[in-house]
Each structure stands twice: as structure tokens, then as C-alpha cells.
Amino acid sequence: MRYTQICATTCCALALVACVTDYGFGKLPIAQPRALAVSTFPTNLGDWQGGGLLPVDPDVQAKLPSAKIIDRNYTNSIGETVDLTLVTANDSLDIHDPVVCLPAQGWQIVDSSQAVYGGQLVNILDLTQDGQSMRAVYWWTGYYPPKLSSHFWVQDAAKFRAKMINKREGESLMVRILSTDNDPNELEDFTKAVLPEVKKLTDDGAMKSVARQY
Q: Looking at the whole model, is its pTM more than 0.70?
């Protein structure tokens, strides 16, 4: 009898958890990326002067159908050059990860780390290919959280889901900077020049997302 009671209690508890989970996740809106106006990104960033847009590989664009990709070289007054790539999309799957894309282009990752440049936490990859070294600095931004119900089931479901999902879900913009000059100060200086313009892009996306709610 006692075993039967325990089983019955356990089944009821599991059923309650299932109902709560179903209710919570069923009411849970998911953050979606928003295509930002990367084509308006300036060519002049302080001491850095941008060149013309570099062509996007058709095969890459085909694999990232909703992505808008901007790729441009910037050079400063002492001749240092970096490559800036901005990727935005309406689908998180189309905002690629340099950890995947750069090795697919033949680069081998020899080290990875993180740093804070101008208040922005960035990821850093040191890479090599055929005797040439390159450093990549990149990060994701442009997260617009959806409005959640105040019901505590929904709030708990959101907290649980946040622990389980890909941390980049819903991010609208990937910023990647490449340099073959092996000068970390160069990358930090350029990142600091880029950050105010990136913020303008994401702030504009936030305003548009608010406008679409009405």
C-alpha cells in the first residue's frame, strides 16, 4: 500500500511539473534577431579610413540566406589595416560563428581568449594558415528581449530556458575584426572606434522593434 501511495504521489508530482512546464513554455515568447541597417555603417571611423565594400562569396551568401554581410578594409594614418565584417539577419542560424567559419576557410585556431576593449567583452582567436598568422576579434550584440507575462510560471520558465539555450540566441549582429599585423593595440584601438557606431545600429534596431509593437 505504501509503495502504491508513493507511486501515485510521484506520478501526480510529475504531471504537475509537466503541466507547469507546458504552460510556462507555451506562454514564453522567444527573442528573435532583427536585421539591422549595416549598409549605413560609416567608412570613416576617426583615424581609420574605410575602402570599398569587398565582395561576399556567393557560396557563403547561399548558406546564410537571410544574412546581410558587410565586409570592408580600414586603414589608419600609419598604414595599419584591419578587416571589418558585420553580419546581421532575421534568423539566428544565419549569423555565423567565426570559430566555425574561419577553420572552414583553412585557418587553424592556435589559441582563444577574451578581453575587454572599450567596455566591450570580446572573443579573440589566434590563427595560422600556410605560415601566415592572423588574429580575430569578434562579438555578438543587438539582443532585444521580448516582453514576458508577469505570471510566475512564465518567469520561472524563462529563467530555466536562459540557462539551457545557446547564449547567442536572438542576437542581431556579429562584429568581426581581422588583422595580420600581430599588434593587439591596433585591434583594441579599432574596436574602440567601432563601438559607438555599433551602438547606433543596435539602438536604431531597438527603436524599430518598439515601433513594430504598436
A: yes
